[in-house]
């Protein structure tokens, strides 16, 4: 059974972890969740409410991390998923995670990223010259990383599939699964 890695941490968007996790299990993949440490992760729920200029954040699900980043062997996995939420803001500083992500790009393996997840791929220099989408507020960050930003439900650039946020899940996962069926 092929294995897929999800890399995340506390304050990840609940839906952006759980939807791909369950969808990939449904497709028959084994899925591991890796975080800075093996622990019970605390996810959040981002939503939009009238009168707010940006999204709001509430406590979300908790879920155990299967592995610490230091325990991950990227060679064991056919692809990686990078959820959003606030987690990527601090995870991009983790040298173990940067090594993991670089290994996926160096090995030309499928990568799915959503929302703020592209902050991680930017941190390893893997967006230069690519077309991506992300949460719209990250447009300037994506451009600074050398990417061409497209405001779309899903953008496919080679084996990299990007999406804006959880409302785009069906389009994002449909495109990622197409790649996995041929490459993963």
Tell me what portion of residues adopts beta-strand conformation: 25-35%
Which segments are poorly predicted (pLDDT under 50) over 5 or more consecutive residues?
A: none
Helix content: 25-40%
Largest sheet: 7 strands, mixed
Approximate shape? globular
Structural class determined from secondary elements: alpha/beta
- Termini separation: 11 Å
* Rg from alpha-carbon coordinates: 15 Å
Number of helices: 6
Strands of the largest sheet, in order across it? 5-2-1-6-7-11-10
β-strand number: 11
Output mean pLDDT.
97
- Elements, N to C (H/E): EHEEEEEHHEHEHEEEH
Secondary structure elements and their pairing?
Layout (H helix, E strand, L loop, with lengths): L2 E5 L6 H13 L3 E6 L4 E8 L8 E9 L2 E2 L10 E4 L4 H5 L3 H12 L4 E4 L3 H6 L7 E2 L6 H6 L3 E2 L4 E4 L2 E4 L5 H15 L1
Parallel strand pairs: 1-2, 1-6, 2-5, 6-7, 7-11, 8-9
Antiparallel strand pairs: 3-4, 10-11
Question: Nutshell version of this structure?
Answer:
This protein is of the alpha/beta class and 184 residues long. It has helices spanning 14-26, 87-91, 95-106, 118-123, 139-144, 169-183, and strands at residues 3-7, 30-35, 40-47, 56-64, 67-68, 79-82, 111-114, 131-132, 148-149, 154-157, 160-163. It is built from 6 helices and 11 strands.
